[in-house]
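During the second half of the funding period, the structural biology subgroup turned its attention to how the target accommodates small molecules. The most pressing case was FE2/S2 (inorganic) cluster, which had performed well in the primary screen but for which no bound structure existed. We therefore specified the complex as follows and requested a full 3D prediction, including the ligand pose.
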Amino acid sequence: MASQAAAVNTGGVSTGVSRREFLYYIWGASIALLSLQGAGLLLWFLIPRFREGEFGGTFTIDIGELPAVNDQPINFADGRFWLVNLDSTQPNDRMYQAEDEPNPIQGVAAIYKVCTHLGCIYSWTPTNNRFECPCHGSKYRLDGRRVESPAPRTLDRFLIQAIADDESTVLAEASLVDDFYAPLPLPSGTAFLRVDTGSRKQGPSETLLCDFLGNCP
Ligand code: FES
């Protein structure tokens, strides 16, 4: 009973808190502190921490870096994408309109550098005017559509925006067609492109282009 009655004394003045209550308070405070730490860690884990120019973040590109229409793609290694400038109404060996494509393919696109088959990094092969994957031989047209399998679908694309010369006004952004980013025709006044590698859409499964030519391997 003496211990129950033993209150915490400060300078001989009882605070009215027993030793057991005091220990409960300490225990409760420790639990609260641990919970707060856990919540903080969870937030730190969940909140994106990408900076400008990092993969998973946004890239601002001067319009002067854009490739010419249907020219070879520009490699942005840090962002893991290719920048292409397409116009199927001005066909060449790299870009053209296939039999099942009723509308012109025109505009700028940012194409993810990972093969849609098993995830290898493919590259542009200038001698063949197409993207080629070294792992199992998939081939893609300049806009990312499959020429030859085993890739199951068109290459993925990132969201792209046309930005005015104040570097902030968004003049236009790639529209979604069947949940896939269409090439973005650039409005007049475009000074920069902004590519958001945190926003990626999977390419569709379309007929292999080699099927139209009857030369699939
Ligand atoms: S990973 Fe590219 S063809 Fe298999």
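Two results from this model are relevant to the next phase. Residues 19-46 form the longest helix (28 residues). The mean pLDDT is 88.
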